[in-house]
Amino acid sequence: MYRWVLALRYLVSRRVTLIAVLVVALCVFVVFVVMTVMNGLVGQFKERTHSFVGDCVVATESMVGFPYYDRFMDVLRSEPMVDSVSPVIRTYGLVALAGRQDAVGIEIMGIEPNSHFTVTGLGQGLHLHRDDPQTAFCSQADPNIPGCILGIDLVLNRDSSGEYDYRWLPLKATYDISCFPLTARGALERIGTGYVNTKRFGFSDVSHTGLAREDGGLIYVHFDQLQGLCGMSRPPARATAIHIRFKPKVSLQHGTRQVEGLWDRFAKDCQGMPQADLLGLVRVQDWKTYRKSTIAPMEKEQIAMIVMFILVATTAVSIVLVVFYMIVSSKTRDIGILKAVGESFWGVIGLVVNFALLIGLVSAFLGVLAGWLFLRYINQIEGWLFARFGFQLWDRTIFSIGQIPNQIQMGVVAVIVMCALLVCLTGCLLPAIRAARTQPVDTLRASPI
Amino acid sequence: MNCDGSAILSAQGLVKSYWLGTTQVPVLRGVNLDLARGEFLAILGASGSGKSTLLHILGGLDRPDKGRVLFNGNDISSFTARQLNDYRNRRVGFVFQFYHLLDELDVLENVYLPAMIGKGLVGWLTHKRTAVQRALELIDQVGLGHRIHHRPWQLSGGERQRVAIARALMNKPDLLLADEPTGNLDWATGQGILALFGALHRSGQTIVMVTHDQRVASQATRTVFLADGQVQPGHTNPSSSNNSKIG
Ligand SMILES: Nc1ncnc2c1ncn2[C@@H]1O[C@H](COP(=O)(O)OP(=O)(O)OP(=O)(O)O)[C@@H](O)[C@H]1O
Ligand SMILES: [Mg+2]
Q1: Does the beta carbon of B98 sit less than 6 angstroms from any atom of ligand 1?
Q2: What is the mean predicted confidence (pLDDT) over A294-302?
Q3: Domain assignments of chain A as residue spans, ordered by start
Q4: How far does the centroid of ligand 2 lie from the alpha carbon of residue A332, in Å?
Q5: Which of A375, A379, A438, B41 fits a disulfide with A406 by CB distance 3.0 to 4.6 angstroms?
Q6: Does domain B7-243 have CATH number 3.40.50.300?
Q7: A333 inside 8 A of chain B by CB
């Protein structure tokens, strides 16, 4: 008990302890803020990806697609764990403003809005037809031609605050979209007059997913339109993917495994049917695995950051160690006195450990408090910096970030506080042992003057 | 008076030397000493004769190279770490030549420190009332009742020494060891301290006091001399500590 009293007195009376407290608090602050923002960004990105993809995807890597997707969708629909399914074609093509020659390469996605808006969150990212599958592909300018939805960054620029100016929507624009129809064997197929299949679409809406690749390079058209353009509608009709949404309580792993089983059986049943070998290229993946190539780098960055934080922690440990060595060295007489009145080896260790814990607690509290305040006003601070000095942490004209995420996760706080305590404990260990080994006579012989 | 004849502490053939580089400096060369319960013994010796060294060994703060110290017949060098801590905490009260109080604690806390040692939160909370009570009594007894919340550096040398004595008595030790308790004090203040020792002795406390001052030693009931690393038998002062009053 007296150990806490004495530790507390040392904490307030020794100025060097202030250094240890400040160093650890600063580390806690930095780690807390960076972790929170980084976790927020990664979490946001994953959430957007999940919303864009749905829970599970049955997809082929081949641009040719795979047949009998409609039959497998029927199989899926009869499963109690499946909430909804939606067929998708994703391919490459060319797009140009109607009548012009300067076509650019683009990714095109064919979706059935009715089912796709229930499987994914795509409908919520529309501007004019938010969650309205009926009119999603109605052309704004000319009701007689089909409509297309453009990734928002294809037509609008972001201003410095990250907002789009929707006044500039190209409501009257029409586009010529060209695709390269492929046979089941992957050869270019001659349709109509040539190998390239072109169709005119009117602008219907923009889609804002918050995913840079999709917003900056993807055009959505109706599934049936794209199927025709790609030569996939001739029986057996083909698609490149089926997106699946599970019922709320179905776990991702369990659901995906079930679908996998269903697919294996389905593919086996289809053996011998025309184009059945295309089924061999199909994979069943949950959304995380499906988008591994974009999620993995972010997670790797997160890990790299944690490694950096370990270096930060090592620095903190050494500073705490030095400070404790200084304190213990200047307090050998006190330790000698304590041992002379009967304190044990472990009692002295306990005293130093209590002192360390106290420093850890105080600095963790200060660091977390400062971090909490900083995070709370991080967007205002960033806004002020931008208004005053033109400095922006993330250039909103480039990054798809609205607000800097500052949602505080209690888990992160808990881990950081534990680490701070651990840092202090590690730092005090050697000095504590040194103190505990003190022989009373060695320190008490001399006069205190 | 008060001696009941049984030896509470007995030193047998204590040898201790220090090494300065490669030269051996012998300090104690076979010290034999018996202390009866209730006795007030003064060890008199010149500066550098090894008085502090001897007292540290008797108090379990240092180990002899040879020989042994028997406390109630038990060899303290055979004590386990726990027994040794208990010996320092409850059997012996040590008053140092230079007071050695903790600057971070006030007078009251310094005095009840020995009672806090080794107690957890629960243990301490259950003991606190009686401990504070006793500490206050002791502080009163040494005449510092009005200074309980002062820090050691706010006290004079004599006041600090009195706090150190109160601390040494906190756990009602069987044995009070005092290393030059008046060494750094003026004569009058020293007399106050000695009067206090006399009163303690009359109440039955066994005391060993080390000093280089003949006049101080004369306050004890028995005096021995430490010279050439050995204890020379001294004399008994029949009624020495009975004529002083508590200061
Ligand atoms: N750690 C040590 N290393 C070397 N020599 C020491 C050590 N401690 C004490 N000595 C020597 O041992 C001798 C006895 O020291 P001690 O402190 O016991 O004397 P003392 O009788 O208490 O003296 P004083 O009256 O001045 O306090 C001295 O000569 C001293 O220099
Ligand atoms: Mg001495």
Answers
A1: no
A2: 87
A3: 2-46+295-446, 52-293
A4: 19
A5: A375
A6: yes
A7: yes
Residue B3 predicted with pLDDT over 80? no
- The whole-angstrom distance between A370's CA and the closest CA on chain B is 30
What does residue A105 show for φ and ψ, rounded to 5 degrees?
Answer: -70, 145
pLDDT tens-digit map of A36-78: 998 888 888 899 999 999 999 999 988 899 999 999 999 999 9
Report d(CA A89, CA A151) in Å as an integer: 16
Chain A residue numbers with beta carbons less than 8 Å from the beta carbon of B113 are 2, 338, 341
Alpha-carbon separation of residue A93 from A136, A153, A226, A256, B109 (angstroms) = 21, 18, 10, 31, 84
- Ligand 1 pocket mutation, candidates B18, B65, B184, criterion most atoms within 8 A of CB: B18
pLDDT digits (tens, 9 = 90+) for A57-68: 999 988 899 999
Residue B246: band (very low, low, confident or very high) from pLDDT cuts 50, 70, 90: very low
**Greatest mean pLDDT range, A202-206, A380-384, B228-232:** A202-206
Q: What is the pLDDT of residue B243?
A: 42
Check A444 against B100: CB less than 8 A apart: yes
Q: Among A114, A123, A77, which Cα is nearest to A244's?
A: A77
Nearest-Cα distance to chain B for A21, in Å, is 19
Say whether pLDDT at B30 is over 60: yes
SS3 labels along chain A: CHHHHHHHHHHHHCHHHHHHHHHHHHHHHHHHHHHHHHHHHHHHHHHHHHHHHCCEEEEECCCCCEECHHHHHHHHHCCCCEEEEEEEEEEEEEEEECCCCCCEEEEEEEECHHHHHHHCCHHHHECCCCCCCCCCCECCCCCCCEEEEEEHHHHCCECCCCCECHHHCCCCCEEEEEECCECCCCCECCECCECCEEEEEEEEEEECCCCHHHHHHEEEEEHHHHHHHCCCCCCCCEECEEEEEECCCCCHHHHHHHHHHHHHHHHHHCCCCCCHHHHHHEEEEEHHHHCHHHHHHHHHHHHHHHHHHHHHHHHHHHHHHHHHHHHHHHCHHHHHHHHHCCCCHHHHHHHHHHHHHHHHHHHHHHHHHHHHHHHHCHHHHHHHHHHHHCCCCCCCCCCCCCCCCCCCCHHHHHHHHHHHHHHHHHHHHHHHHHHHCCCHHHHHCCCCC
Q: Which ligand 1 atom sits closest to the C-alpha of B47?
A: 25
pLDDT for A403: 79
A371: confidence class by pLDDT, cuts 50, 70, 90: very high
More confident residue, B230 or A328: B230
Given a cut of 90, is residue A354 above it in pLDDT?
no
Residue A385 pLDDT more than 80? yes
CB contact under 8 A, B62 and A439: yes
pTM, whole model, 2 decimals?
A: 0.77
Partners of A332 on chain B (C-beta within 8 Å) are none
Q: What is the pLDDT of residues B6-17, one digit of tens each?
A: 789 999 999 999
Which ligand lies nearest to the CA atom of residue B48 in the structure? 1
Q: A221 alpha carbon to ligand 2 midpoint, in Å?
A: 98
Domain ranges of chain B: 7-243
